[in-house]
Design a protein that fits this description.
Elements lengths: L2 E10 L2 E11 L4 E5 L6 H8 L7 E6 L2 E2 L5 H7 E4 L11 H9 L11 H14 L14 H14 L4 E5 L7 H16 L3 E5 L3 H7 L2 E6 L2 E7 H4 L2 H8 L3 E8 L2 E8 L5
Parallel strand pairs: 3-8, 3-9, 6-7, 7-8
Antiparallel strand pairs: 1-2, 1-4, 4-5, 9-10, 11-12
The structure holds adenosine-5'-triphosphate (ATP).
Adenosine-5'-triphosphate (ATP) binds next to strand 2 and helix 1.
Protein name: ABC transporter
Pfam family, one: ABC_tran
Keywords: ATP-binding, Nucleotide-binding, Translocase, Transport
């Protein structure tokens, strides 16, 4: 389940946001999408999901041009986890996750045992099963984010587009979520995940796609591409990337380094 984006350009009216963005992502890859506020990360996701059809260039999922993909087929290929939003209706957590599992059913068909089991499994996977009967307007922002993630996983699409999924999560849940996403990529999922935390990219991503000023500043394997220079270009603060000892070895980590020349 690959993603191919070629020479994608998009403007909101006269305001250009993406210019000539090209990249490819393959099964097994967890691509961290980095870039400062307003770089165009969410716009990229919206173009990929067909919400913003007036772009130039091409976007293909599994070799299929998204411009010509019916909604239902798109949902079969790719699941989207939006930046947190305030829900309009107070559906229960279980029903919300069930909407993902039941998305492939014919219109008006009731979800059956299989869909209920899938929803239950995904709630357990992300740790929200105890909240199943609570309304989604009456849980915390982080719990709601986990509900949206469970809903996307229940959709059982093999491409996941995650727009800052860790933004509302506590420190432990951020790492649990990213570890879980990494496991999914090891099972053959293709994941694009935007984040403002380069640490997440260093620790969990296989690849990085960095957007800056609407263009691709870097694209490729994390070890090669995620450099101090790139981080400085993106965030304009001095950061040092270093090997940090952990149990059984070392990991690359970045630290704010204000005295750095
Ligand atoms: N609906 C819209 N109409 C007009 N301009 C928009 C709209 N949505 C976003 N923009 C503008 O497009 C640019 C890219 O926004 P986008 O939300 O894609 O950035 P982002 O990288 O996801 O930012 P952030 O990290 O702050 O979430 C910004 O300049 C933003 O102001």
């Amino acid at each position: 389940m690959s993603i191919d984006v070629e020479r994608l350009s998009f403007s909101y009216g006269t305001h250009p946001v993406l210019r000539d963005v090209s990249f490819r992502a393959e099964p097994g890859q967890l691509v961290a999408v980095l870039g400062p506020n307003g770089a165009g990360k969410s716009t990229l996701f919206r173009c990929m999901l067909g919400f913003l059809p007036h772009y130039q260039g091409s976007i293909s999922l599994c070799g299929r041009d998204v411009r010509h993909l019916p909604r239902r087929e798109l949902a079969h290929l790719a699941a989207y986890i939006p930046q947190s939003s305030q829900p309009l209706f107070d559906y229960t957590v279980r029903d919300t996750v069930l909407m993902g599992a039941a998305g492939g059913l014919e219109p008006l068909r009731q979800p059956g045992r299989q869909q209920l089991e899938t929803a239950q499994r995904m709630m357990e996977l992300v740790g929200i099963a105890p909240l199943a009967d609570r309304g989604i307007r009456r849980i915390s922002g982080g719990e709601r984010q986990l509900t949206l993630i469970a809903r996307a996983l229940a959709q059982q699409a093999r491409i996941l587009l995650m727009d800052e999924p860790a933004a509302n999560l506590d420190y432990g849940n951020q790492f649990r979520l990213l570890q879980q996403v990494r496991r999914l990529t090891e099972q053959g999922y293709t994941v694009l995940l935007s984040t403002h935390n380069p640490e997440h990219a260093l620790r969990f991503a296989t690849h990085v796609l960095a957007l800056h000023g609407g263009t691709v500043a870097a694209c490729g394997p994390v070890e090669e591409m995620l450099t101090e220079e790139l981080l400085h270009t993106l965030y304009r603060i001095p950061l040092t990337v270093a090997q940090v000892p952990v149990t059984g070895g070392t990991v690359r980590s970045c630290v704010y380094d204000p005295a750095k020349p």
